[in-house]
């Protein structure tokens, strides 16, 4: 009887101990998981706070720099106005109005370009207010120039007036324009700003290196187009594109794309931000972390564009070919670090290798070389 009790104790004690250990391990596992989730939450909040601080700092710096540029332009207009009045009164020295107002126009264009490239972190209200100031400066400059310019004397002339030269309607309709910003700026400013490429469909569009090197390229409202950027642009902004292909050389700064549907992008850049887009395939070379927001069904693959002179373009753009973070994507709509975002994935299989020359040829044949070169 004594031996039976001992045997029973020997069986029950280890079983009880193992159950207690299992419970402790389960509790510890739950605590660790809870702490990890809390830490992930804090990390996301910290990153968001850092992002907000950077945006606030950028906005403050923009406000100061913009106000300073505005004051400089206002001073120049005022000085020219006063000098013109003295000259018309016979007191002042000779004044080259054409040169002075040409310089003022260049400064206003530079101010417009500064506003355009800053729209990524400005509110709609700020954009409208600043655009109103730029428009007011333009009007004031033109009014001052008209007031100071010598009036032509009225008289008849026997010379025939040559008819105005008109552009070929087709070329006029498809001429690419220069320097703009995001779609919200385009809408907010009542079409004051022109986009580099806008409102095109079923076209092959090629901008060569002499047109884009170091410049800010902006594209909007494209459907079923093949856009090729040859060279190293300064930055690239794309807004509202559907079923398009964008083939680009390395970009010195950022690619910002929004409202892209069923598009293919092949681009190298320092920073990628993709917003409000779906069913897009991105062949990417990026030296920082790529960012997507409000996106679905995004596929990522390494950049595979190749052409004569690409090494020089990478050097001119300041990008390292050895550093490519195409697989490191931050989805601002997905907070979990344990589970991958369902909004993007890495492209695999035969789709990674793609023959761009063949795609270009097929597209141009399909649309009868309706090209804007």
Note down, in words, how this protein is organized.
The protein is of the alpha/beta class. The protein folds into two domains: 18-83 and 96-147, Methane Monooxygenase Hydroxylase, Chain G, domain 1 (Up-down Bundle); 195-370, Pectate Lyase C-like. Helices cover 45% and strands 22% of the residues. It has eight helices and 15 strands. It has helices at 2-88, 97-117, 124-148, 169-174, 183-188, 209-212, 310-317, 356-366; strands at residues 197-201, 204-207, 216-223, 226-229, 235-242, 245-250, 254-261, 264-269, 271-275, 278-286, 290-293, 296-302, 329-331, 344-346, 371-372. Strands 14-12-10-8-6-4-2-15 form an eight-stranded parallel sheet. A seven-stranded parallel sheet has the order 1-3-5-7-9-11-13, with no helix packed on it. Helix 2 packs antiparallel against helix 3 (124-148). The longest helix has 87 residues, at 2-88. The N and C termini lie far apart (103 Å).
Name the descriptors.
22% strand, Methane Monooxygenase Hydroxylase, Chain G, domain 1, 8-stranded parallel β-sheet, alpha/beta, 2 domains, Pectate Lyase C-like, 373 residues, single chain
> Which of globular, elongated, flat, extended, rod-shaped describes the shape?
extended
Q: In CATH's first tier, which class of the largest domain applies?
A: Mainly Beta
What is the CATH topology descriptor of the largest domain? Pectate Lyase C-like
> Beta fraction of the residues?
15-25%
Q: Any guess at the CATH architecture of the largest domain?
A: 3 Solenoid
Calculate the mean pLDDT score and round it: 77
Largest sheet: 8 strands, parallel
First-to-last CA distance: 103 Å
